[in-house]
Design brief:
The chain is mainly alpha-helical.
Length: 116
């Protein structure tokens, strides 16, 4: 629910570029593949080159500069309880393990992705 509202708000403010297709409703990363394929096909008869750079952002969410992300959210008008919630999510991730009657102390997690 939060992701949906946050995305809609940022899209309405123009904070997400139109070329961003991943993780957006009615869009797909395949849209970018089709656009690239069309550019190659259009340039081929004119003997034009097409330069492509592909980057694999595997586990990119673990490497996000969280303070800059919060700064950008503030700049784009996110405030109040939503901003506080996102800040706690990004900066105050604590976990502990409980098994039967034993519980270990809380530890702060360095990454966002849950790995169980």
């Amino acid at each position: 629910m939060v992701e949906c509202r946050l995305r809609e708000f940022l899209e309405s403010k123009g904070a997400i570029r139109d070329c961003q297709t991943g993780f957006r409703r009615y869009r797909s990363t395949m849209d970018r593949v089709i656009k690239l394929t069309q550019a190659v096909n259009d340039g081929f008869p004119r003997k034009q080159s097409t330069l492509t750079v592909l980057v694999d952002f595997k586990a990119a969410n673990d490497k996000v500069w969280r303070h800059m992300l919060l700064h950008k959210l503030k700049k784009d008008g996110i405030a109040g309880k939503l901003l506080n919630w996102v800040q706690r999510l990004l900066l105050q991730r604590n976990i502990r393990c409980r098994f039967l009657n034993a519980t270990n102390p809380w530890k702060q997690r360095a990454c966002l992705r849950e790995q169980f």
